[in-house]
Specification:
With 126 residues, the chain is mainly α. It has five helices and two strands. The longest helix is centred in the middle third of the chain and has 29 residues.
């Protein structure tokens, strides 16, 4: 249970950093207050987590030859596609990713930040 909570927090922090750093990713344009954006961020993090748990393994399975051929670098493309799918599911008024370039850069940032946050939060495994 705590592992799921850690991953949820890591996704939320990583998405917030991606929204902050990448100009093509916007969060809750209709929400002007901080609490509205926070709730939107948490909903988007939940959607992103579900997409990563349900859809991403299937996509990785079908793209296994490309993953082997590119020595795993195709994973960055898959991450960008998962971010675009999250944007489509959440709706453009809540979470908008403006094109594949922003999704690719955002996916890269989310991967790095999520890894770092998981390393910090998950210290009790040692």
């Amino acid at each position: 249970m705590t592992s799921i909570l850690f991953r949820f927090i890591a996704n939320a922090v990583a998405l917030a950093v991606a929204v902050w750093l990448v100009g093509g990713i916007t969060l809750g344009e209709g929400d002007s207050d901080t609490s509205g954006k926070t709730v939107t961020l948490l909903v988007v993090a939940l959607i992103f987590g579900v997409v990563n748990v349900v859809v991403k393994p299937v996509v990785k399975l079908f793209s296994l030859p490309l993953l082997i051929l590119t020595l795993g670098l195709f994973t960055f493309v898959i991450n960008a596609l998962m971010l675009l799918l999250t944007s489509w599911i959440a709706g453009d008024d809540r979470f908008d990713v403006d094109g594949f370039g922003a999704a690719f850069l955002g996916g890269l940032i989310i991967s790095i930040v999520s890894w770092a946050v998981n390393m910090v939060l998950d210290r009790d495994k040692d």
